[in-house]
Specification:
Elements lengths: L4 E12 L13 E10 L7 E6 L4 E5 L4 E3 L12 H4 L9 E4 L8 E5 L5 E12 L21 E6 L4 E4 L4 E4 L45
Antiparallel strand pairs: 1-2, 1-5, 2-3, 3-4, 6-8, 7-8, 7-11, 8-9, 9-10
């Protein structure tokens, strides 16, 4: 698991140029870039690193700074960062995964405005606490607080980062039921070693606790 920074699948995109000038000028302009990494800081949104065609790199930009290649900036609606990404990072320790089952699949997320926004899966960012000698002050491993961030290329040209409980995926050969689940938030902490009803044998037997039976 990475600390602070992590590689992501290389994404060819466009950057809104005002983000390169602290939002003070060049509004409405874009230039080509390659997004190649992220920073994860507790209490901040996922922040992205990009390299431009002039060879310069700009670190730690929000997902709202980018639009997809092939879109004209005037045709891509400007959405607030909190509309594109629902939650901040849950720790300084991100894990980046490209789930094969979702690769190339489309889905839709439910926005704060109660509308749905369709897009294609890119990759997933998840979080955990690294080790017991560091005090855990985050929420990444509390069952009912945990969230991941699935990164999407939206049909409108934006990108988004959304958790499982705001997303419905479309896998045509399997997701054939048109419904919104009424599931409950997970609160259980699963453990197979929290009972005093079973102990291992005080023996050197390799297959301890197993009795041979005749057929």
């Amino acid at each position: 698991m990475a600390y602070l920074n992590a590689n992501i699948p290389v994404t060819y995109a466009q950057i809104r140029r005002e983000y390169l000038y602290d939002l003070k000028k060049n509004h409405g302009e874009v230039e080509d870039c390659i997004i190649f990494g992220i920073t994860s800081i507790t209490g901040r949104p996922v922040l992205f690193h990009a390299i431009m065609e002039n060879g310069a790199i700009f670190y730690r930009l929000p997902i709202s700074a980018f639009i997809q290649r092939g879109f004209k900036p005037e045709e891509v609606p400007k959405r607030r960062l909190d509309e594109l990404e629902l939650w901040n990072c849950f720790s300084y320790y991100p894990a980046v995964t490209s789930w094969d089952i979702l690769d190339g699949q489309s889905g839709k997320y439910f926005g704060k405005d109660k509308k749905t926004y369709a897009g294609a899966y890119l990759f997933t960012v998840d979080w955990a606490h690294p080790e017991s000698n560091i005090v855990d002050t985050d929420h990444s491993e509390i069952p009912h607080e945990h969230k991941c961030a699935h990164i999407l290329a939206l049909d409108d040209g934006n990108y988004a980062a959304q958790p499982n409980n705001r997303l419905i995926w479309d896998i045509p050969s399997f997701t054939v039921r048109n419904e919104i689940p009424d599931w409950k938030v997970q609160t259980s902490e699963w453990n197979v070693e929290d009972t005093r009803k079973w102990k291992t044998e005080d023996t050197d037997k390799f297959f301890y606790g197993v009795e041979e039976k005749d057929d």
